[in-house]
Amino acid sequence: THQWRGIIEEYRDRLPVTDATPVVTLREGGTPLVPAQVLSERTGCEVHLKVEGANPTGSFKDRGMTMAITRAKEEGAQAVICASTGNTSASAAAYAVRAGMVCAVLVPQGKIALGKMGQALVHGAKILQVDGNFDDCLTLARGLSDNYPVALVNSVNPVRIEGQKTAAFEIVDMLGDAPDIHVLPVGNAGNITAYWKGYTEYARDAVATRTPRMWGFQASGSAPIVRGEIVKDPATIATAIRIGNPASWNYALAARDESGGFIDEVTDRQILSAYRLLAAQEGVFVEPASAASVAGLLKAAEEGKVDPGQKIVCTVTGNGLKDPDWAVAGAPQPVTVPVDAAAAAEKLGLA
Ligand code: F0G
């Protein structure tokens, strides 16, 4: 019997590896494409969720990290470094363990979700909390990798994009063609760049007959691409996309313009509302940043930008367990009962 082999083995002919490359994998990718019934009804479209929280470390970052750590290993690196809002560091830490490498991570102090910090810690990464935001962390990580023997595994490393483009391949392989529209949260803008690369490669090679329009959504307090200028002090409850100066800014603009799409913003309130809808009505628990794609789709639908009958894929990028504070906040406290069926039945409204 077979299990999914990980993105490098499944898409080897489309990735920069050779037979001699020492593949470092946790069998990432092969994630569920889940039909979204409530979102389909609301939009009059066929909406699917690409559930990237089902990856080994709970986010889409594993697709890029299997490539980045594999190539770092091939090149003889003994240590890797990344800046992160949490998920990249969790992924880098896990894959570095598999490769027998040291992993250093730079995170913005007090602004990463507890689950992600726990992952980096339990995998033994060396963590520095930086007195600054993600953009400062990335500047520092670049400087360190330029001047010290440590390989940078952020998405400014082009092999990360190569790994992440496989999500677009999986979607086309499942649907039989590209969707009409693909919706993504946008932070550092690596992922929108990667999906666009994947879709255009499949179209070029006639595996797909078309490419989708790319719709990206930033959080309102962290929306430099929408504003057209760097945001010095980015703010949002969606800490994963709290980024004011995206590294792949120009690639995101290219994906937007070449695909005939757009990049817009959603408020924290819209993000949390989509977050709750996904959990309570679709059965899919994602982290807040991931809900920005769905919040954006709903916003676009309200604005009359979504023609009915289209095939739409929303990527939900990370698992809800990474940042459970938002699930617990504002929810009613569970009631306590004695070991007594009648009492329990009464509290459950069954009696
Ligand atoms: N969703 C989640 C859950 C993320 O962790 C990120 C980025 C994004 C969306 C945005 O993707 O940066 O490619 O546009 N997280 C990075 C990190 C910055 O450090 O984990 P992007």
Q: How many helices?
A: 15
In CATH, the architecture of the largest domain is 3-Layer(aba) Sandwich
Described by strand count, sense and barrel closure, the largest sheet is: 6 strands, mixed
Q: How much of the sequence is in beta strands?
A: 5-15%
List unreliable stretches of 5+ residues.
Answer: none
Give, in order, the helices and strands.
HEHEHEHEHEHEHHEHEHHEHHEHH
Identify the strand order in the major beta sheet.
1-2-10-7-8-9
Bound molecules: ligand F0G
Domain Tryptophan synthase beta chain-like PALP: 24-318
Family: Belongs to the threonine synthase family.
Modified residues (N6-(pyridoxal phosphate)lysine): 61
Binding site for pyridoxal 5'-phosphate: 87, 187-191, 317
Q: What does this protein structure show overall?
A:
- The chain is of the alpha/beta class.
- The protein folds into 2 domains: 222 residues, Rossmann fold (3-Layer(aba) Sandwich); 97 residues, Rossmann fold (3-Layer(aba) Sandwich).
- The protein is built from 15 helices and 10 strands.
- The strands form 2 sheets. The protein has a 6-stranded mixed beta sheet with strand order 1-2-10-7-8-9, with helices on both faces. It has a 4-stranded parallel beta sheet with strand order 5-4-3-6, with helices on both faces.
- Helix 4 links the parallel strand 3 and strand 4.
- Helix 4 packs parallel to helix 5, helix 9 packs across helix 11 and helix 12 crosses helix 13.
- The longest helix has 15 residues.
- The chain binds ligand F0G.
- The site of ligand F0G has 22 residues, from helix 4 and helix 9.
- It comes from Streptomyces nitrosporeus.
- GO terms for molecular function: L-serine ammonia-lyase activity; pyridoxal phosphate binding; threonine deaminase activity; threonine synthase activity.
- Pfam families: PALP.
- Belongs to the threonine synthase family.
- This is Threonine synthase.
